[in-house]
Design goal:
This protein has 323 residues and is α/β, with parallel strands linked by helices. It has 2 domains: 137 residues, Rossmann fold (3-Layer(aba) Sandwich); 135 residues, 3-Layer(aba) Sandwich (Rossmann fold), CATH 3.40.50. The protein is 35% helix and 23% strand. The chain has 13 helices and 16 strands. Strands 4, 5, 6, 7, 8, 9 and 10 form a 7-stranded mixed sheet that branches. Strands 11, 12, 13, 14, 15 and 16 form a 6-stranded mixed sheet that branches. Strands 1-2-3 form a 3-stranded antiparallel sheet, with no helix packed on it. The longest helix has 21 residues. The two termini are 40 Å apart. It holds the Pfam family Peripla_BP_2. This is Periplasmic binding protein.
Length: 323
């Protein structure tokens, strides 16, 4: 169970440990890229693609895994696809302001080939889980790289992959150093040792609770902070409210996709009986914001985490992207 008061000596020791664990390290993602006159040849899951050395008209077909990191790297796509959740457009961690200058080419799982063609892209970024079946058609429009989801579930690893692809590795490491700085600051402000804090993240969707898989971005962030994730699963799993107590933790985050109010949840006796709820450590967070998998969305998640984790003082929201 987390502590709320930490002696001065522990604060000092925590600072030293934090500094040692999170010293800035320049990272690189080694993907097979070879040079050819006028382009760079990139190997990926469905073969190899000759992409422009400096692409200027990029279409990114997923907001979470592609648009967010590309924007953070300082590149403005000309087109993008969006997620559709229960018939509504979802930007998965981004805001309308982030994407206001990008033309929408439809649903990420069913983008409009006609709209893509009209935009005359010189590079299309796609995801294997959504676009494998239309890869050939996309490639006939423009050079297309299919990003492997299983190899890039970590938002940091995915950023580094795209950075090497787009020759933006310096910018990617700047973003990661800014992220590490925020993580260090958060650890320093915690009121106790991070590993003493146990955390659970649940999704509420279509009237059911879903426990989040270990690859969820929130788990990655909490692990970087040093917190203990109560759940460690390879996939999301629907659970009944009757077994919620098995996932009770010091702090509980609920990503509510259904737009319910806090009283809606707390009126249920099995939810109200959870220790996190009784200790006022249950937080209902924006499900779209917490669906992020890129630096812009992760930064907004960190703003929430700064507010909710037990700490000595609150840090003002911070915005990072390549300057």
């Amino acid at each position: 169970m987390y502590c709320l008061v930490k002696p001065f000596l522990l604060i000092a020791l925590s600072f030293l440990v934090t500094t040692a664990c999170y010293s800035p390290v320049i990272q690189k993602y080694n993907i097979p890229i070879t040079s050819s006159p006028g382009c760079r040849i990139v190997q990926h899951r469905l073969g190899e693609t000759c992409i422009p050395v400096k692409p200027k008209r990029i279409i990114a077909l997923d907001p979470r895994y592609l648009v967010d990191p590309v924007l953070a790297l300082g590149i403005q796509p000309i087109g993008m696809a969006t997620s559709i959740v229960r018939g509504k457009e979802s930007l998965d961690g981004l805001t309308p302001d982030d994407t206001k200058s990008i033309l929408n080419v439809g649903d990420a799982f069913n983008p409009s080939l006609e709209k893509i063609l009209k935009l005359k892209p010189d590079l299309i970024l796609a995801m294997d889980f959504a676009h494998k079946n239309i890869y050939k058609k996309l490639s006939e429009i423009a050079p297309t790289v299919l990003v492997n989801y299983e190899e890039n579930t970590s938002f940091k690893k995915n950023l580094l992959y795209l950075a090497q692809l787009l020759d933006k590795e310096v910018e990617a490491n700047e973003l990661l150093l800014q992220y590490q700085t925020r993580i260090k600051k958060l650890r320093k402000q915690l009121s106790c040792k991070p590993q003493e804090i146990e955390v659970t993240v649940l999704i509420y969707y279509q009237g059911a609770f879903v426990i989040t898989k270990s690859a969820h971005t929130s788990h990655e962030i909490f692990s970087d902070i040093g917190l203990t994730n109560k759940i460690n699963l390879n996939s999301n799993e629907v659970i009944s409210v009757e077994i919620l107590n098995q996932y009770d933790a010091d702090i509980l985050f609920i990503m509510d996709h259904d737009g319910k109010s806090k009283p809606f949840f707390l009126k249920h006796p099995l939810i109200a009986s959870l220790n996190a709820v009784k200790n006022n450590r249950a937080y209902f967070v924006d499900a779209i914001k917490w669906s992020a998998n890129g630096p812009l969305g992760v930064n907004r998640m960190l703003d929430d985490i700064f507010k909710y984790l037990p700490q000595k003082s609150y840090a003002a929201p911070h915005q990072f992207r390549v300057k």
